[in-house]
Automatic annotation (TrEMBL):
The keyword Oxidoreductase belongs to this UniProt entry's keyword annotation: yes
Keyword Oxidoreductase: yes
Taxonomic classification: Bacteria, Bacillati, Actinomycetota, Actinomycetes, Micrococcales
Cofactor(s) required for function per UniProt: FAD
A matching Pfam family: Pyr_redox_2
Signal peptide location: none
EC number: 1.6.99.3
Sorted UniProt keywords: FAD, Flavoprotein, Oxidoreductase
Alphabetical GO biological process terms: aerobic electron transport chain
Organism: Brachybacterium nesterenkovii
Superkingdom to which the source organism belongs: Bacteria
Protein name, as recorded: NADH dehydrogenase
Family: Belongs to the NADH dehydrogenase family.
Every FAD/NAD(P)-binding domain range: 10-338
GO-annotated molecular function: NAD(P)H dehydrogenase (quinone) activity
């Protein structure tokens, strides 16, 4: 498959996330029909990950954190398939699609925006019993399982079962983990008023963190504030502790604790997409693509012609933070790198000099439940630390601004207004992962003819 037509350059974009969607829309805006663009993603939509904790807490409808690639990128070819190999020597990418022979897509310019995956460890029981928190399906499942567990716990008389059903464990107290736990715990605290048979002290939320602090992204003082907040809310935060195993849903920690947990959420960091190893592009020690500040991928001899990359799967110099610093993996950098990258492809095609990526950190913000949050904002060189309601409001405002498409921004705001008016939806639908179960049971019990 080759889109290069009559001298029109073909840009192949791998990944339709924060980097991929930004590059495709900016390129189309800048060059119109003078460029052919193909976006490959295994999902037909972008997931706005910073809103996943609010999906897990039932504050935002899952569909409102997704932007459909075919609608947002109308006029761009979108391939729904999984990249399995990059052969830059032949300028070819191999893509696995449903029920078909692998596609071989050629290109003139390649953009790699394949993001990251959870950094897992060989812990007994982890693969079988834990769940990640990076995709909308995971956030929906966490919410459904927690709410269903409350309903089941309120209806059982067996003390051990009840204890397990009301124990929720999160591993990793960085941004994603602390935010996800805090939002879900807030939902549970809010929902308990509909459960006269359950008391707050029956519910056990455990956060296991290997380091001596949580939320390092917001700095030491605010991290300590967030820790105190969570502990005041009854969350058991185990610092400098490891989860040694979780076989059959029984969590064993390095401090000697052992308990059955209904849910184990793994949020202990990320690593670059492992599919990068299936390529002839050079990777650095962390498994990422090393980039120049102009976002061209480089090896020891300098830039590799025709390959750009950005986002979580790259190491990009952070010129605004000083010599030797590199950009941290977040959406703030990914979308802005996407813009710079698109402009540098236009410049490459037009034979103009490239421009380096330079972005001054705007700050870091985490919501910790309704009206609760922490964060730092930068106004030039001035740093402002926010706690509680102001931090929560600033985080929500920023993410609505950053969320792609006006339609989805309106959707998110409508969800919040609906929650204010009618309260959160307290329904968990555990069978949504097995929608055929009820029908299968009925069909199986129907007497067979003859
Ligand atoms: C819970 C959570 C909360 C977060 N909160 C914040 C926040 O508050 N602020 C912030 O700045 N950042 C936040 N982040 C981080 C931010 O979302 C990421 O840094 C950002 O999305 C990275 O953009 P990307 O384009 O590199 O990767 P992604 O946006 O992840 O896009 C990668 C794309 O590649 C696709 N893909 C992967 N493998 C393949 C394959 N083999 N074939 C085809 N397609 C593939 C994926 O489907 C995906 O669409 C959060 C992340 C999480 C998980």
């Amino acid at each position: 498959m080759n889109n290069t037509t009559g001298g029109t350059p073909h840009v192949l974009i791998l990944g339709g996330g924060s980097v991929g969607m930004t590059v495709a829309s900016q390129l189309r805006k800048a060059m119109g029909a003078d460029v052919a663009i193909t976006v490959v993603d295994s999902r037909p939509y972008l997931t706005y990950q910073p809103f996943l904790p609010e999906v897990g807490a039932g504050s935002i409808d899952p569909r409102n954190v997704l932007a459909p690639l075919r609608k947002v990128l109308a006029g761009t070819k979108v391939v729904t398939g999984s990249v399995s190999e990059i052969r830059h020597a032949d300028r070819t990418v191999v893509v696995e699609t449903e029920g078909d022979a692998p596609l071989e897509i050629t290109y003139d310019h390649l953009v790699v925006g394949l993001g990251s995956v959870p950094r897992t460890l060989p812990i007994p029981g982890l693969a079988e019993n834990a769940i990640g928190f990076k995709w909308v399906e995971e956030a929906v499942t966490v919410r459904d399982r927690v709410l269903s567990a409350l309903a089941e716990a309120a209806s059982t008389k067996d003390a051990e079962t009840r204890k397990r059903l009301l124990t929720f464990t999160f591993v990793g107290g960085g941004f994603a983990g602390a935010e996800a736990l805090a939002e879900v715990q807030d939902m549970v605290a809010d929902t308990l008023r509909y459960y006269p048979d359950l008391h707050a002290s029956d519910v056990r939320f455990v956060l296991i963190e290997a380091m001596g602090r949580i939320l390092p992204e917001v700095g030491e003082e605010l991290g300590r504030y967030a820790l105190d907040q969570l502990r005041e809310r009854g969350v058991e935060v185990k610092l400098e502790t490891f989860m040694n195993s979780c076989e059959n849903g029984v969590v064993k920690t390095s401090d000697g604790d052992e308990f059955a947990s209904e849910l184990i959420v793994w949020t202990a960091g990320i690593k670059p997409n492992p599919v990068l190893a299936q390529s002839d592009l050079p990777l650095n020690q962390t498994g990422r693509l090393d980039c120049l500040a102009d976002l061209r991928v480089k090896d020891e001899n300098g830039p590799i012609e025709g390959v750009f990359a950005a986002g979580d799967c790259t190491t990009v110099p952070d010129l605004a933070s000083g010599e030797g610093k590199v950009c941290v993996p977040n959406a703030q950098h990914a979308t802005r790198q996407g813009k710079r990258l698109a402009d540098n492809i236009v410049r490459t095609i037009q034979g103009r000099p490239l421009v380096d990526y330079y972005h001054k950190n705007l700050g870091t913000m985490a919501t910790l439940g309704m009206y609760k949050g922490v964060g730092t904002l930068f106004f030039g060189d001035r740093k402002v630390e926010l706690k509680g309601l102001p931090a929560w409001a600033a985080a929500r405002a920023y993410h609505v601004y950053a969320m792609p498409t006006a339609e989805k921004k309106v959707g998110v705001i409508s969800d919040w207004v609906a929650n204010l008016v009618g309260g959160r939806d307290i329904l968990g639908i555990p069978e949504s992962t097995e929608p055929r179960k009820a029908f299968e049971l009925t069909a199986a019990s129907t007497p067979k003819k003859g």
